[in-house]
Amino acid sequence: MEEGTAEYPARSLGGSAVVVEECAGVSISEAGACVVNEFKAEERDSDSPEIIFVAAVKRKNNIATARGGKVNVRRRRGGRGGHHSTAGIGVACVTSTDERVKKKRAKRRFWEHPSLAMRSESGIFQAMYEDLRQHPEKFFDFYGMSISTFDELLSSVKIAITKKDTVARMAITAEERLSVTLRYLIHGINFSFLGKDFMIGRSTISGIVRETCAAILKALQPKEMPEPTTEDWTRISEEFYHKTSFPNCLGAVDGRQVKIVSSQAVIVASKKFKNCNSVVVMGVADANYKFTAVEVGLFSGDEGGEFSIEKSSFGSSLLAKSLAIPLPCPPPNSERALPFVFIGREDFPPHENILQPYAGKDLKVKCSIFNNRLARAYSSIDCALAILCHKFKLLRVGLTVAPEFGMSIVKTICILHNFLGERDGLNMDDSFACSLEDYALFRSEVEVIAEDSKSRREEFADYFVSPAGEVSWQTHGVEKHEQP
Questions:
Q1: Span 370-378, average pLDDT
Q2: Residue 156 clears pLDDT 70, i.e. is over it
Q3: Distance of CA 450 to CAs 30, 137, 169, 472, Å?
Q4: Which of 235, 271, 350, 462 is the most buried (most CB within 10 A)?
Q5: In this prediction, what percent of the chain has a pLDDT beyond 70?
Q6: CA distance 208 to 441
């Protein structure tokens, strides 16, 4: 038998040690010894440290000792002893110590590194937090939110992120933990630089961000992004009509990609995500540029590995007609009922609750007017994603964490977008362009009645050119003559 190889059916014994079941007549070729008790092995009196042997017997309370090519078995705690040959006794394969023993963790030189020892006096949080609270504008620049909003967010997650002090050290406060997380999300500062600013170890920074993001999601998602009811959809459609003059609109849908920057964290990620190169965020925005629904997935670049709206819970509910969408009703100044719809791009497939623009250049006036009205309503998701991207610079910098962690971060950012927009307002100067890459949300065939969907689009187009539905600005940029 060769070193590092198992020639018989084996099972794991912890680490790289294995047990070969019921392999009679196996001899051991090198000196060494191991004791097995309930299939847990430990080295004992090994004359050859590079090679060890593990022997296991059928009865748990027996002790097996391998010496000089034979296996001696004796009963534990005063039981009858005796010498047995290897026949009928499971004998482990010869395993190299390099493979069996887990890599030992390097011995720590310091309990706390000297460069971090002065955190309580020289850390950026200790030096600036109280002073920033005396200057609201500076506080807003540092944290990306007002003092009152920060305090409200802190009160929502404080219990979940507060740690107890110990005899060995003082715990990092909830205020500082939230400060670390917000600096990372809003300013995109990587863990290494955050560690130097706050004088906290990089691994500790990573743990703080992970725990705080989870706490924010748990505390705020039921309040800031609840599942809409029929009454909520009706209110959203009324706001859309008031702001965009588009009736029966429930929201605009689009997706973007957030790049995962190559790093060791991604390289060692689980096999399921080994080819992942971006996190995909799909959003449904209302007329106030808030997200009513968000789905976050992974794009791996492998065939069949893409995230698509059909695979999301929102898309599944939409296609299954379980979104509590109101029944069709007539738009203002009309008696003809129209369905409630979501606005999508032209690459979206036809669906009875999705409207997409007419494709092509040489369009009839009616079709061009419809596209103008649709584009104004669709701009809500473009603006929402642009504001999200400019507010949270991390999305532009890219993620340097494992994909699963990245998904949690992006979800947290979307929840904070709603939270901050409701309290501090949105900066519309950031809404002109989104620097994130587009993402095609539909990637497979959807079973729909195409003709029925087209007829619904025609119904909206007819309404927009009728006296009941027309508005003064809808002909801007539209040719004054019908195209053939």
A1: 92
A2: yes
A3: 75, 54, 66, 31
A4: 350
A5: 62
A6: 33
Q: Are 288 and 271 in contact (CB under 8 A)?
A: no
pTM of model > 0.70: yes
| Mean pLDDT, residues 267-279 taken together | 55
Taking residues 74-92, what's their average pLDDT?
40
Which residue reads 């078995």 in tokens? 73
Contact predicate 131/147, CB 8 Å: no
Q: Is there a contact between 72 and 52 (Cβ–Cβ < 8 Å)?
A: no
Is 169 in contact with 119 (CB distance < 8 Å)? Answer: no
Phi–psi pair at 211, nearest 5 degrees: -70, -40
| In the chain, domain spans | 10-100, 114-223, 226-465
Give the C-alpha separation, 423 to 420, whole Å: 5
Residues sharing a CB contact under 8 Å with residue 266, sequence separation 6 or more, in sequence order = 260, 276, 400, 401, 402, 403
Residue 110 has pLDDT above 60, yes or no: no
